[in-house]
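Figure 3 (text version): structure tokens given as input.
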């Protein structure tokens, strides 16, 4: 009351302290707080203390909903905890178990051990077929692609031209760590995959072995690709956007890059060991290998013998200046630009009569074109003739028909893979090879409006034009043309007996480009010397060659074929660098 009356503190403060002290004393004696019991407190009025029935119902409903939510959260929490416990237990079990026999990096292969089955443990990817369904297989190849889907891994394994899809999903036998490992191995690494071959419901797109896939049980990396890829294999395999010309100059800088996600030619050649892995390149060089095989097969069947001539010479092979020179123990020497002189010595002078060679040829020509190389592989042949150089032409015509027929029969799949990236039309050729003379060729050009004299050398452009004319007129991309002007042929070419301005020489063409140059050779020493002087060649520099004909020599003829150019033109490629595994041109001498 004193406080409410706002009396001075001096009047009511002593009373307040006395009262508080009495309350403390009361609690000490009774153990209870001084004042009325809480139960006895006067309830609030009806309006504030009692809720309406409607409010009670709402609160009850909210309480029930809240309880239900809490129960749901509790169950969800318990389920998460259960899953987490199982996962931890699984990981703990996986961690304690050694999975190296199932997946991981394989030990380096150092030929330390050899299994009883040996190479037969592995199955070639190209051999995988639906007839092998259910069989356990072990395959090795490049990891072409890898993608993770949920708890699974899909990988594409590539070996040469062939690919197969391999699939794995997390299970009691496939730990999650294995799925992660499969998806993490760098592309182009070498891997071994073991599993069961199955037949999927639908063909596997993007795999050559589309009717099967491997259900992976073991996955090991034999050798891991550690360097960054200079380009992606998918980009290197893309089809050409446009068809390039196959004649004219080659611009190295312009070919360093390409549009549309493609890879430039120079970039490919800088990293040729990767570029060679594409299906098109795998096919190109299998075709090239088959050309050599068929060349050798046919000539052996015609009583030819394979020889090997030296590539180190004391002078130019054909008396020309475009040779690579070197020091040979203090003496000047050069690399052979043709096996011409030695195969003549073997066939005509050495008595072997029919010889051939497959070997390197070197030309120091600063020609930056789409069809020239400084080093290429020569397919050379030389044979004795009885009465006419047509005997050689008959062999050449039948030889190429044998090669073309053989490629069609044995390389159909490779040819198709090249077409997929570098589209081209199949080569047209006649079973009886077309032969025209030089004058006829010049006449065909003139009739088409081309200025071409009978004794003028053919330009590259006119050769291409003549090829188009012959294809239109005779329905063939392959033909032989003989009786070239003597002035445009090498010194050892036999002159035409009926026209001193012409020669017993010939070229062979594919798609309007020359792939072989040959002739009947001069076998009389005096005429060889005469022709050499006409070319400005000092006879002393070819003395050993001329002397080889002084002890009797068979009349003979032959020719030299450029392997890379044959493959380039047969497959309709726009650049000879595509048909040379490691090309050498005036600007490139590596890798």
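Below: residues designed for each position.
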């Amino acid at each position: 009351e004193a406080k409410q009356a706002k009396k001075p503190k001096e009047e009511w403060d002593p009373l307040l302290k006395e009262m508080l002290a009495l309350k403390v004393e009361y609690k000490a004696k009774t153990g209870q707080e001084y004042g009325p019991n809480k139960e006895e407190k006067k309830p609030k009025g009806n309006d504030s203390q009692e809720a309406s029935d409607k409010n009670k119902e709402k609160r009850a409903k909210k309480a029930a909903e809240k309880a239900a939510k809490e129960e749901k959260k509790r169950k969800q929490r318990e389920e998460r905890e259960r899953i987490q416990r199982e996962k931890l237990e699984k990981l703990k079990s996986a961690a304690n178990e050694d999975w190296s026999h199932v997946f991981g990096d394989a030990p380096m292969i150092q030929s330390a051990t050899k299994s009883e089955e040996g190479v037969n443990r592995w199955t070639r990817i190209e051999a995988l077929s639906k007839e092998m369904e259910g069989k356990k297989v072990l395959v090795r190849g490049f990891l072409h692609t890898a993608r993770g889907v949920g708890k699974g891994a899909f990988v594409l394994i590539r070996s040469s031209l062939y690919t197969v899809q391999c699939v794995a999903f997390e299970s009691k036998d496939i730990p999650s760590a294995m799925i992660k490992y499969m998806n993490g191995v760098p592309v182009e690494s070498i891997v071994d995959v073991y599993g069961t071959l199955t037949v999927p419901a639908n063909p596997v797109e993007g795999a050559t072995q589309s009717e099967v896939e491997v259900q992976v049980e073991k996955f090991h990396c034999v050798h891991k690709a550690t360097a960054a890829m200079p380009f992606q294999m998918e980009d290197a395999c893309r089809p050409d956007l446009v068809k390039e010309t196959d004649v004219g100059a080659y611009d190295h800088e312009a070919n360093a890059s390409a549009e549309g996600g493609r890879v430039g030619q120079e970039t490919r050649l800088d990293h040729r060991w990767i570029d060679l892995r594409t299906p098109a390149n795998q096919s190109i060089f299998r075709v090239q290998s088959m050309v050599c095989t068929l060349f050798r097969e046919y000539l052996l069947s015609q009583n030819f013998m394979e020889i090997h001539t030296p590539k180190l010479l004391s002078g130019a092979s054909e008396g020309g200046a475009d040779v690579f020179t070197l020091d040979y123990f203090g003496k000047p020497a050069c690399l052979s630009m043709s096996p011409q002189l030695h195969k003549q010595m073997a066939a005509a002078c050495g008595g072997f009569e029919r010889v051939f060679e497959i070997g390197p040829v070197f030309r120091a020509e600063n020609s930056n074109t789409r069809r020239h190389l400084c080093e290429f592989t020569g397919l050379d042949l030389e044979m004795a003739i009885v009465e006419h150089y047509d005997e050689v032409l008959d062999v050449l015509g039948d030889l190429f028909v044998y090669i073309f027929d053989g490629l069609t029969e044995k390389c159909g799949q490779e040819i198709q893979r090249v077409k997929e990236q570098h589209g081209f039309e199949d080569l047209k050729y006649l079973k009886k090879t077309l032969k025209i003379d030089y004058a006829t060729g010049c006449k065909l050009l003139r009739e088409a409006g081309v200025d071409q004299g009978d004794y003028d050398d053919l330009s590259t452009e006119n050769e291409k034009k003549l090829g188009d004319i012959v294809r239109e007129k005779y329905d063939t991309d392959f033909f032989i043309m003989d009786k070239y002007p003597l002035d445009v042929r090498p010194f050892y070419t036999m002159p035409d007996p009926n026209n001193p301005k012409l020669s017993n020489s010939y070229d062979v063409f594919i798609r309007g480009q020359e792939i072989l140059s040959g002739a009947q050779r001069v076998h009389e020493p005096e005429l060889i010397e005469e022709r050499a002087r006409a070319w400005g060649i000092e006879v002393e520099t070819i003395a050993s060659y001329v002397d080889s004909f002084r002890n009797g020599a068979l009349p003979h003829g032959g020719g030299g074929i450029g392997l890379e150019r044959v493959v380039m033109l047969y497959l309709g490629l726009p650049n000879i660098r595509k048909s040379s595994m490691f090309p050498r041109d005036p600007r490139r001498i590596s890798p």
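The mean pLDDT is 90.
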